[in-house]
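F.,

This is the one I mentioned.
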């Protein structure tokens, strides 16, 4: 079977999100639903309840022990963000257990993904975005397609890495040349299967250039800048060859204040360290 068929087969067979995610989505889409309705769905799963509460009380959200119930988590953190935490918990279970036979180290990929999520959320905060619910999760799942490649065409991925190093091209170019598809497109296809919101699908599909159909999208742009920043600062390791340059049109349109990164790096680093423990890296 050729590589592209293996990848498409892998997408068909890719695990679905837990049932709890789709039940929460039904609650969200019902205009008569309340926070208690959502809390009832989550609390039926003791493991999910404990993990959501632990995450909600982390430094990422800044509540530090104030949240002792799912209802409070929904009130303080936001319903969509609580639902997004279910995605992250599911994603952890998709990382390969055998961490020695992969050309991208799964641990390093997860570290990078967490860092991108943290930086994305901090950049959104700097820009004064009032609703940051999707910023953390969008950053964390931007490389979803790489998990597919690791699990389904791992041996072929070595050829991708070699092509990057030998031809001084971007990883996306090498993936397209060798595999016939890049991780952004593959990741978007998984997001479609998971029925994720369009904002998250866009972040996965367009994080490479930060734009959608020629227009700068703030969330996608923040993921784009955060992805490059995480590579530059050495949070995890998924880069082969050169670190890509940011899209200047995105950078100029977002117009971050001077000293943005120096002002957020201490918090980013502290959140990163805590998150590695929280998400079991």
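My design for it:
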């Amino acid at each position: 079977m050729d590589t592209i068929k293996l990848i498409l087969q892998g997408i068909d067979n890719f695990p679905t999100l837990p049932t709890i995610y789709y039940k929460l989505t039904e609650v969200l889409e019902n205009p008569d639903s309340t926070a208690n309705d959502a809390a009832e769905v989550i609390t039926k799963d003791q493991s999910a309840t404990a993990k959501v509460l632990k995450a909600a009380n982390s430094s990422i959200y800044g509540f530090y022990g104030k949240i002792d119930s799912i209802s409070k988590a929904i009130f303080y953190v936001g319903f969509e963000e609580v639902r997004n935490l279910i995605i992250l918990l599911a994603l952890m279970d998709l990382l390969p257990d055998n961490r020695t036979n992969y050309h991208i180290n799964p641990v390093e990929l997860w570290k990078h993904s967490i860092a991108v999520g943290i930086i994305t959320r901090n950049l959104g905060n700097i820009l004064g975005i009032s609703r940051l619910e999707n910023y953390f999760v969008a950053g964390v799942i931007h490389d979803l397609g790489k998990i597919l490649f690791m699990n389904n065409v791992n041996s072929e991925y070595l050829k991708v890495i070699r092509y990057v190093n030998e031809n001084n091209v971007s990883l996306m170019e090498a993936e397209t040349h060798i595999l016939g598809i890049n991780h952004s497109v593959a990741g978007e296809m998984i997001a479609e299967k998971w029925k994720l919101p369009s904002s998250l699908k866009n972040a996965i599909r367009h994080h490479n250039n930060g734009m959608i159909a020629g227009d700068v999208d703030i969330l996608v742009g923040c993921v784009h800048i955060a992805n490059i920043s995480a590579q530059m600062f050495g949070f995890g390791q998924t880069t082969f060859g050169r670190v890509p340059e940011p899209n200047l049109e995105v950078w100029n349109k977002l117009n971050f204040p001077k000293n943005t990164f120096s002002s957020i790096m201490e918090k980013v680093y502290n959140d990163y360290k805590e998150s590695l423990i929280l998400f079991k890296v």
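The first helix runs from residue 3 to 13.

Talk soon.
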